[in-house]
Structure formats: structure tokens, C-alpha cells
Amino acid sequence: GENVEQHPSTLSVQEGDSAVIKCTYSDSASNYFPWYKQELGKRPQLIIDIRSNVGEKKDQRIAVTLNKTAKHFSLHITETQPEDSAVYFCAASIREVGRSQGNLIFGKGTKLSVKP
Amino acid sequence: KAGVTQTPRYLIKTRGQQVTLSCSPISGHRSVSWYQQTPGQGLQFLFEYFSETQRNKGNFPGRFSGRQFSNSRSEMNVSTLELGDSALYLCASSLYGRGFETQYFGPGTRLLVL
Hints:
The structure holds 2 protein chains of 2 kinds. Helix content of chain A is about 0%, strand content about 55%. By secondary structure, chain A is an all-beta fold. In chain A, strands 2, 4, 5, 9, 10 and 11 form a 6-stranded mixed beta sheet that branches. The mean pLDDT of chain A is about 90. By secondary structure, chain B is mainly beta. In chain B, strands 2, 4, 5, 6, 9, 10 and 11 form a 7-stranded mixed beta sheet that branches. The interface of A and B includes residues 46, 95, 101 and 104 of A.
């Protein structure tokens, strides 16, 4: 089955710096890659996602890149702010329109700390 | 629209007992998935329900079960609790659980098994 590995497990940056979190997946059939942010004591919330027919997607300070050949995808946060401090999870799944969604397989998470 | 809700939010049980957790999806959402979150294993998929039917199941023992009602509300049950079942149990809902729909998570139920 699918396996998702996420690195690093912890990341500390200064406010204003960029942060990059990387994930690799094992199942070449996976075609949907969401990223979730979970603040302490709160629920995971989707921040960005990408489908396998797209190489990069941006939303303001957040971007995700996907390399299907190498089976890895990355989250990029620019101009980090203290409120970006949270645990970030990547995930992968096989999604097909018209069929059941299948499982979301999550990475183990990255604890990002942004120091003022 | 109200978000996904879960009850209870906190629960303390002892080994051998059983527990039932409840999840109410966003209004109109018909797919409900359950996940177990622990510090060591992260977020792991338990099962997914759609139209009162289990469509997908993760790699958990049979002590973990669930069901979905006609109003899409879902419950999960854990029988014969073990210490290792202590975790945050999250449910997530989506419209039909198909294509590339976003899954919206509830706040979770934190279960402590003593």
C-alpha cells in the first residue's frame, strides 16, 4: 500500500525566512496531495492541495510543487510569520472522479516554529 | 454552515471497557471518514462511510467498528479498550467522498485509556 514519508520532523526558522517541507510517496497511482495545518489543540485544516496533472500551485505565501517522476512533493512557505507555527501534514491518495475517494495516507508531520 | 462536530470532546476509560464516539458532518455532506492520531503513528485512516455503508477500511483490528445513520451522522465504537487506544480520534466529512473533494475535519475526541 501507499507510504508517505515527511521531512523534517521539526523545523525552526526566523520570522521572514522561508520554510520548506518535503514528502515522498511510494504508490505511483497516487494523484492527489493535500497539505493540512494543525495548530495546537485544534483540528487539521486544509491549506493547499495539488493534483498529479499540475506541477506547482501557489496561494499567496504558500506553494506546493510536485515531481511525479521522483514521487515527491514539497510545501514552501515564504515570509514566515509567528502564526505559521503549527504542525504540517502532507498526505497522498488515489482520487478518481466518479469513484469512492479511498484513503488519505498522511506523513508523520512537521512541527514548524517561527521565531519572532 | 456549521462545521463538523464531534462528541464527546474528552473521554477517560479503563482497559477492557468499550467506547462510542459520535461525528456529525457538515450539512449536506454524505461521506464521513475516521482517523486515529497519536504522537508515534501520526494520522491513521480507520474507515470511511457513505450512505450508511462502509466503503473503505484501514488496517485496524476488528475491535474498531463504525456505522453511519440515514442523516449521515456517524459513530465509531472501540470494544475491549487497550492502553494503546489512547489517542485523538478525528472524523472528517466531504460531500460524496469522490474525485478531489476536500475533507473537513472535526475537533476530535481525545480518549485516554487507563
